[in-house]
């Protein structure tokens, strides 16, 4: 989606491009005949500026917590996609606030745990500010330019309570660091 914006700017003061927009929009400049950064530096800048912005993505933001411990699952990975292409975008849950963000566009999306350790160790156990869900996925509708912020709760699967996403499961096999530390 390309949007045009015509601005009438005074040429004498120094100005920077700062479009007021929702934080959930990713809209870089598509085309402009005049530089939009540090306007007025040379004193010869035109007063009318026409710029085209391209809306690339709307953010899907969220917070994720382990249902048992209440803390963020450090290193948990999500994928966002559609029924046809389930893995278009991916992200990792941040350890401090359980925050994650994914690029999206208007439409219906499917959020699920990424194949591998995330899906082996964890399962989805609850969510809010979303649409319906299946056992292993959550449907999310992006229906405005404001994006969407969701909350996801996960829990470790039976038998996986002691496993960690960040630990190396093959530590007993060793590696160069284990060889150096054991000698």
From TrEMBL:
<dbReference type="InterPro" id="IPR009448">
    <property type="entry name" value="UDP-g_GGtrans"/>
</dbReference>
<dbReference type="GO" id="GO:0051082">
    <property type="term" value="F:unfolded protein binding"/>
</dbReference>
<protein>
    <submittedName>
        <fullName>Uncharacterized protein</fullName>
    </submittedName>
</protein>
<dbReference type="Pfam" id="PF06427">
    <property type="entry name" value="UDP-g_GGTase"/>
</dbReference>
<dbReference type="GO" id="GO:0005783">
    <property type="term" value="C:endoplasmic reticulum"/>
</dbReference>
<dbReference type="GO" id="GO:0003980">
    <property type="term" value="F:UDP-glucose:glycoprotein glucosyltransferase activity"/>
</dbReference>
<feature type="region of interest" description="Disordered">
    <location>
        <begin position="163"/>
        <end position="183"/>
    </location>
</feature>
<dbReference type="GO" id="GO:0018279">
    <property type="term" value="P:protein N-linked glycosylation via asparagine"/>
</dbReference>
<dbReference type="GO" id="GO:0036503">
    <property type="term" value="P:ERAD pathway"/>
</dbReference>
